[in-house]
Amino acid sequence: MKKGPITPKGFRDIKPELAGKRRRTINKIAAVLEKETFGFVPIETPTVEFAETLLGKYGKEEKLIYQFTDRGGRKLALRYDLTVPLARFVANNLGLLTPSFSRYQIGSVFRGEKPQKGRFREFTQFDFDIVGSSDKYEEDAKIIAAAIKSVRNLGLEKATMIINDRKNFEGLPVEAVRAWDKLYKIGLDGVKKELLTKGFSKDEIDKFISVLDKKRETENFNKVREILESKYDLKFGKDFVLDNTLARGLDYYTGLVFELLPDDKLEADREISIGGGGRYDNLIGTFAERNIPAVGFSFGLERLIDLI
Predict the structure, then answer these.
(1) Which CATH superfamily is domain 16-307 in?
(2) Could you give the residue ranges of the DSSP H alpha helices within the chain?
(3) pTM
(4) Residue ranges per domain, the chain?
(5) Which residues partner with 122 through β-bridges?
(6) Rg (the chain; Cα; Å)
(7) Beta pairing, strands 101-110 & 67-69
(8) How many Cβ atoms sit within 10 Å of the Cβ of residue 14?
(9) Cα 22 from Cα 30, distance rounded (Å)
């Protein structure tokens, strides 16, 4: 029997059984986020943005953005994530900041990277963010707690949030931070080799690593830890930990960054995180021309569903 056309590499059809599982997962997370404790509301944004809206926000990952020109000569792009479209949305809807705005969104995003197990060129993100509040400790803690409580509602009792503070990287070149973020993937020798190819001397690399390898509990981390334990009944060492290797590659992060791993085997699971996020206080201001603090988290729905 002749088959129909195939989908492009990295794209796929989703059959009824998996579609149903996705919907049930989304509903369980949304049920947690919409509780009075957290108070998130849904929004939706377009799949296509002007290319200039997305460019200059993702560092070296920008090369993965799908760009094209329409028949009117306009340069457009498929959204790379849901965070930059949120920043554009807020800049155009400042009246929602009373004084803050907490939203969640589910949608397809697109990245022109090599497909692999659990990773596609089109995949679904489930984001939730708090925009506008000046109480960064409370809001960072709320985002982290909401992510942990959501996966507990899905039955992932051992999932662990790893947290670090980008403040620990101040004064270091961005190349050193990006290489350090790959430590669990390429090892210490791999980090050194990558930095050598970037033109740094062995002495410079040793100095970078001596700074990066110190586990420092910053004021940001300690304040958020206190709230997580006292307000949300989460336990340090069980529900969340400090991890000095975590950097997250996107350039717009400014404070605490975090990733959610499927269980407590932290070293083994670094390459299969089920979500991540952090504080990004400067991104929305690039559109709104005013300082608007923000913090958020994003679940990778495909990996999350694989686990449950």
Answers:
(1) Bira Bifunctional Protein; Domain 2 (3.30.930.10)
(2) 16-33, 51-54, 83-92, 136-153, 174-180, 183-197, 202-212, 219-230, 285-288, 301-307
(3) 0.89
(4) 16-307
(5) 110
(6) 20
(7) unpaired
(8) 12
(9) 12
Overall residue count recorded for the chain in this entry = 308
Residues with Cβ within 8 Å of residue 134, at least 6 apart in sequence: 99, 293
For 239, the token pair is 């529900």
101 pairs with which residues across the strands? 131
Helix (H, G, I), strand (E, B) or coil at 127: strand
Are the CB atoms for 120 and 11 separated by under 8 Å? Answer: yes
Q: Which of 60, 84, 74, 117 is nearest to 298 (CA)?
A: 84
CB distance 264 to 158 below 8 Å? yes
User: Which own/partner pairs from 61-64 qualify as long-range (CB within 8 Å, at least 24 positions apart)?
Assistant: 61/111, 61/249, 61/250, 63/112, 64/111, 64/112, 64/113
pLDDT in tens, the chain (308 residues): 668 899 999 999 999 999 999 999 999 999 999 999 999 999 999 999 999 999 988 888 899 999 999 999 999 999 999 999 999 999 999 999 999 999 999 999 999 998 877 679 999 999 999 999 889 999 999 999 999 999 999 999 999 999 999 888 888 888 888 888 888 788 889 999 999 998 898 889 888 888 887 778 899 999 999 999 999 999 999 999 998 888 876 677 889 999 999 876 665 455 678 999 999 998 888 898 888 999 999 998 988 888 87
Q: What angle do CA 34, 26, 42 make, to 5 degrees?
A: 45
Residue with tokens 């709230």: 227
Dig out the tokens for 123 from the structure: 């995949």
